């Protein structure tokens, strides 16, 4: 086994570890970089230690092969592999190691821990998983003290809690996954404290029960509270049944809550106790508990545990549903603080890019729409347009603004969003207003004034998003294995390039159909005649006779779009420059599709098939894979996690295109401007020399942004043209990250 000195590597059952072992066995340069000799890794294979049903005794290699994980850089696939293996391994895995062979993994964890501690091979170490903050925003010092714990790791108790979770309605998968994860790791929890408000611990009254543990079945009290305190919230009201607080002994509560408990020795009349029991039985269980999702890892999980502990054999008393609220506003507050802290990193200068202008128009449109909803007292719609749609506009801007978000627009958004939400959540908005440095109260601020709204610009942005979505679907379809080809079901290679064709005008037969529809629409006051009339008139046009099978479906589509989008669908040309919109967002489209290059051409320059299938607003695309020559990119800098990788160099590549391609493979590269691409002065001997620590640029030359790479596919040779000179770069390039 490999050992890091901190945690043991288990390549048999840990996907990350088998990926690391395979990487270091395959890559000699990686071994040399870290001074690992071949004898340290090459002779070794994973050792089976756990048998997992469905995955065998080498679960990690199996899952990595199934998901086609190639290296440690496949982080998303590795996360999926861990999700498949870890929980199943813990709960269903069977040990193969002597001394524990045949036992479940979850059963031997504690015994192995005790054995190692007793032998002096291990010690118990505890620390908070993150910084602990009090509700007053003070950082807390956490100390491990001798006190009382609830053992939520007890196997039988945990099993019952999982049973309760199975029948629990959580309304969304995220909440269920959070519960499952919590129940998987939850062990002992300190349930007491020495100060503050709370109930005394019955068997040790120097301790108070802490709030998260104390408030887990209090809703059972609500079922009878009106009969004990007369509807007075502070508990001081007289009981309608004449019951005194001191009469509510443990035996009395047992009789109310448990069907099988005998009648207690008490001065309370039997009919009164029977009434209390009937009230409880009528109202319980809890139909739905609504709380914050941050309480799932603690309070809400204890809520399940304590219910199954109180009623272990009566699942009719277990909670029915938990609705965990999200933190939309809280996350917005965090985003505001982040923007304020990093405002100097936001883009200054004129806000005149395509996406700047779209964002400004969408904010203005949102202000007008929200104001109308408030005027009509449609508060739900006001929240929809003034928060959710406003946030969606910001999120789209952040995604599309490859050049960076503009500082003025970001702070206009924050200020306007705060004002639009003020009637609904004034306290939070007042707080946000203060974060912006405003000295007077939000209540004295004026309602935001909307600027001009460019509807055509907004529709062109909507066209961009629809086109990007359509391109992703087409790329997904392109990657599917071919059908009806025996013996060849492999999917095609991922394309590197795409050509998008846009049309200035409709094909002639569609042009004729639209012209006729537009004529009827104008002459009939916005009403189109019956399809029979339209079909008869179109059939009389000689240029449409061979297209009649396609004409009426096209007419049906136009009619449907006419109802949704209005008369502009009858226009023979788009109201905006389609190619200009795509060209201005070419970097976004290229990154979104994970391609190397996208070209945007007019359909009039393409073949007849493209001309027929392409019309205004509906571009046509062709994917292709450009061949290249594979070279190694090595990083000689020590201790930075930047591993060697291989990339294809294609004809016409530049320095920047290769750096962008490298960043897609190596996700540790965040800022492309910090990457320096270099070549060896001697392309033959340079890669064979051991790099000198601190002199990583020795023997190498920088590649300028004017350099152009040329490839000879037959000879698999790469040359570099720069300033009139052409040089051979060999099979290895160097990249440094500063």
TrEMBL record:
InterPro entries: LARS1_ULD, Leu-tRNA-synth_Ia_arc/euk, M/V/L/I-tRNA-synth_anticd-bd, RBD_LARS1, Rossmann-like_a/b/a_fold, tRNAsynth_Ia_anticodon-bd, Val/Leu/Ile-tRNA-synth_edit. One of its GO terms (molecular function) is ATP binding. GO terms for biological process: leucyl-tRNA aminoacylation. This is Leucyl-tRNA synthetase 1. SUPFAM superfamilies: Anticodon-binding domain of a subclass of class I aminoacyl-tRNA synthetases, Nucleotidylyl transferase, ValRS/IleRS/LeuRS editing domain. Belongs to the class-I aminoacyl-tRNA synthetase family. It comes from the Eukaryota.
């Amino acid at each position: 086994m490999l050992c890091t000195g901190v945690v043991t590597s288990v390549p048999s059952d840990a996907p990350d570890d088998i990926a690391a072992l395979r990487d270091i066995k395959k890559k000699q340069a990686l071994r040399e970089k870290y001074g690992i000799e071949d004898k340290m890794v090459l002779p070794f294979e994973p050792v089976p230690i756990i048998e997992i049903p469905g995955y065998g005794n080498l679960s990690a290699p199996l899952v990595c092969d199934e998901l086609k994980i190639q290296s440690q850089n496949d982080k998303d696939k590795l996360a999926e592999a861990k999700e498949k293996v870890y929980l199943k391994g813990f709960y269903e895995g069977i040990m193969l190691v002597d001394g524990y062979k045949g036992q479940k993994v979850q059963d031997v964890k504690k015994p192995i821990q005790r054995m190692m501690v007793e032998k002096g091979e291990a010690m118990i170490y505890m620390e908070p998983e993150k910084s602990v903050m009090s509700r007053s925003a003070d950082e807390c010092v956490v100390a491990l003290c001798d006190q009382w714990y609830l053992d939520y790791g007890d196997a039988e108790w945990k099993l019952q809690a999982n049973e309760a979770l199975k029948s629990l309605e959580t309304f969304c998968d995220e909440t269920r996954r959070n519960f499952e994860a919590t129940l998987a790791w939850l062990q002992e929890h300190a349930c007491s404290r020495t100060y503050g408000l709370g109930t005394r611990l019955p068997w040790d009254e120097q301790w108070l029960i802490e709030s998260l543990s104390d408030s887990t079945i209090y809703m059972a009290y609500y079922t009878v509270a009106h009969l004990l305190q007369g509807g007075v919230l502070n508990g001081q009201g007289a009981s309608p049944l004449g019951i005194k607080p001191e009469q509510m002994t443990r035996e009395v509560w047992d009789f109310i809550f448990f069907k099988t408990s005998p009648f207690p020795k008490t001065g309370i009349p039997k009919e009164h106790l029977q009434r209390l029991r009937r009230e409880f039985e009528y109202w319980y269980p809890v139909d739905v508990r609504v709380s914050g999702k941050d309480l799932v890892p603690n309070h809400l999980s204890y809520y399940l545990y304590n219910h199954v502990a109180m009623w272990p054999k009566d699942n009719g008393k277990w909670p029915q549903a938990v609705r965990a609220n999200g933190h939309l506003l809280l996350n917005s507050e965090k985003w505001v603080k982040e923007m304020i802290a990093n405002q100097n990193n936001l883009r200054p200068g004129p806000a005149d890019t395509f996406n700047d202008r779209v964002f400004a128009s969408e904010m203005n449109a949102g202000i007008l729409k929200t104001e109308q909803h408030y005027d009509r007292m449609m508060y739900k719609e006001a929240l929809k347009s003034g928060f959710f749609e406003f946030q969606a506009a910001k999120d789209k801007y952040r995604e599309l603004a490859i050049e960076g978000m503009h500082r003025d627009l970001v702070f206009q958004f924050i200020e306007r969003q705060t004002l639009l939400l003020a009637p609904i959540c004034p306290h939070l908005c007042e707080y946000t207003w203060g974060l912006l440095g405003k000295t007077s109260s939000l209540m004295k601020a004026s309602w935001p004034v909307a600027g001009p709204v460019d509807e055509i610009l907004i529709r062109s942005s909507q066209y961009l998003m629809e086109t990007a979505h359509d391109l992703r679907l087409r790329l997904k379809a392109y990657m599917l294995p071919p059908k009806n080809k025996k013996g060849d079901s492999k999917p095609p290679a991922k394309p590197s390039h795409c050509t998008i064709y846009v049309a200035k005008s409709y094909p002639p037969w569609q042009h004729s159909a639209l012209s006729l529809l537009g004529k009827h629409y104008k002459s009939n006051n916005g009403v189109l005649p019956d399809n029979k009339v339209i079909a008869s008139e179109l059939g009389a046009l000689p240029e449409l006779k061979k297209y009649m099978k396609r004409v009426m479906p096209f007419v049906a589509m136009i009619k449907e779009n006419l109802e949704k989008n209005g008369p502009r669908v009858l226009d023979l040309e788009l109201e905006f420059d389609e190619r200009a919109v795509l060209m201005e967002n070419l970097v976004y489209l290229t990154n979104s599709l994970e391609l190397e290059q996208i070209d945007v051409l007019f359909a009039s320059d393409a073949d007849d098939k493209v001309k027929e299938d392409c019309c205004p607003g509906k571009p046509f695309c062709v994917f292709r894979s450009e061949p290249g020559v594979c070279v190694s990119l090595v990083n000689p800098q020590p201790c930075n996690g930047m591993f060697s990788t291989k990339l294809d160099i294609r004809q016409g590549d530049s320095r920047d295109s290769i750096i962008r391609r490298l960043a897609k493979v190596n996700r540790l590269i965040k800022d492309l401007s910090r990457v320096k691409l270099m070549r060896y002065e001697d392309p033959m001997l340079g890669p064979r020399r051991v790099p000198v620590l601190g002199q990583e640029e020795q023997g190498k030359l920088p590649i300028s942004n004017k350099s152009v790479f040329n490839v000879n596919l037959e000879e698999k040779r790469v040359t570099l043209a720069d300033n009139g000179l052409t040089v051979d770069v060999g099979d290895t390039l160097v990249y440094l990250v500063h």
